[in-house]
Amino acid sequence: MKILLNQDELDAGVERLAREINETYGNRPLTIVGVLTGSFILMADLIRKLEMPLRVGVVQTSSYEGTERGALSINSEMMLDIAGRDVILIDDIFDTGNTLQEVTQLMKNLGPNSLKSAVLLLKTGRQEVDWVPEFVAFDIPDEFVVGYGLDFNDEYRNLPYLACLEPADLPNTDS
Ligand code: 5GP
Ligand code: MG
Predict the structure, then answer these.
(1) What angle separates helix 7-25 from helix 40-47, to the nearest 10 degrees?
(2) Domains of the chain in sequence order
């Protein structure tokens, strides 16, 4: 596997995100909603660098099977009450943008005071929606990446770095 971002680079990116969020919100109370499962490591690292009064909730979506897209499902049973709150939605990666678009739509209906989004990664040139998250740590090329929370078939989330999954890493499907 080719390493795209090592631990130091990831740390610096998260630090940058945190600084931008701290500067934007100051001491205003903030509600963070992480999109599971991919954002859990980013969330854990990021929230410890945020300085305002903070509430943390999660919403779960899943769409990929292997490296192929399946139908998107959203489970919002564990989300906090966000009515009247300033909210940031956190995800690992903004690819086509459809996932955050759908979750954003669902959350807007719950009446937050404001709603922005923050992602670790934005895949260049892949967007199918007409907006991008307000806070982005890294732009990356169009490759399938794993590690730092991101999976391939539920594995590799624990890698402390971000790597490109190359054809040679995939299970051999030739018969
Ligand atoms: P989108 O809806 O923006 O196309 O895709 C967002 C979701 O797809 C992310 O939350 C992530 O779970 C998954 N995803 C998109 N690109 C990648 C990738 O390169 N690697 C992995 N592991 N997941 C990805
Ligand atoms: Mg995801």
Answers:
(1) 60
(2) 9-64+72-143 (3.40.50.2020)
Q: Which of 64, 121, 128, 156 to mutate to test the pocket of ligand 1 (most atoms within 8 A of CB)?
A: 64
| Tens-digit pLDDT profile for residues 50-104 | 999 999 999 998 776 666 767 788 887 778 899 999 999 999 999 999 999 999 9
The ligand with the least distance to the CA atom of 154 is: 1
Ligand 1 pocket, residue 146 CB under 6 Å: yes
Does 95 participate in catalysis according to the annotation? yes
CA distance 59 to 38: 11
- pLDDT value of residue 74: 86
How far away, in angstroms, is 24 Cα from ligand 2 center? 25
- Which residue among 33, 60, 63, 146 is best mutated to probe the pocket of ligand 1, counting the most ligand atoms within 8 A of its Cβ? 63
